[in-house]
Design goal:
Elements: E1 13-16, E2 26-29, H1 31-37, H2 41-49, E3 56-60, E4 66-70, H3 80-83
Antiparallel strand pairs: 1-2, 3-4
Length: about 100
C-alpha cells in the first residue's frame, strides 16, 4: 500500500538513460512485480479514476537516476489572488500594463 506521502512508485518498471538522441526512453518491466503492483488498492483506485488507464510519469532523481511514479490527479486551480497575494486588486482595471 502507498505511503502517506501520496507518491506511488511503479514497482517493476525500470527506465534507463541512453546515449542516442532518437531514443526517448529505454525501459524494462518485471512482470511479476508489476502484476503485484496492480493489486494495490491505491493503484486500483487510480485506474478507475483514469477510465482504465495507469498513468505514470518518469522523472529524474537528484542523483540523475530515472524513476516512475503514478501521475497525481490532484491538480488544484490557483487564482491570481492566491498566486500573487500582495497584488493590489482594488485599482486593477484588468489590463496587464
Amino acid at each position: 500500500m502507498a505511503q502517506k506521502s501520496d507518491t506511488v512508485f511503479i514497482n517493476g518498471l525500470y527506465t534507463y538513460t541512453n546515449e542516442k538522441s532518437f531514443i526517448v526512453s529505454k525501459n524494462s518491466l518485471n512482470v511479476e512485480k508489476f502484476l503485484e503492483q496492480l493489486k494495490d488498492p491505491d493503484v486500483i483506485k487510480h485506474i478507475k479514476e483514469n477510465e482504465g488507464y495507469l498513468k505514470f510519469i518518469t522523472m529524474l532523481s537528484k542523483a540523475g537516476k530515472p524513476y516512475s511514479k503514478l501521475e497525481n490527479n490532484n491538480y488544484k486551480e490557483v487564482t491570481s489572488k492566491e498566486h500573487s497575494p500582495d497584488r493590489n486588486t482594488e485599482d486593477d482595471d484588468g489590463l496587464p500594463f
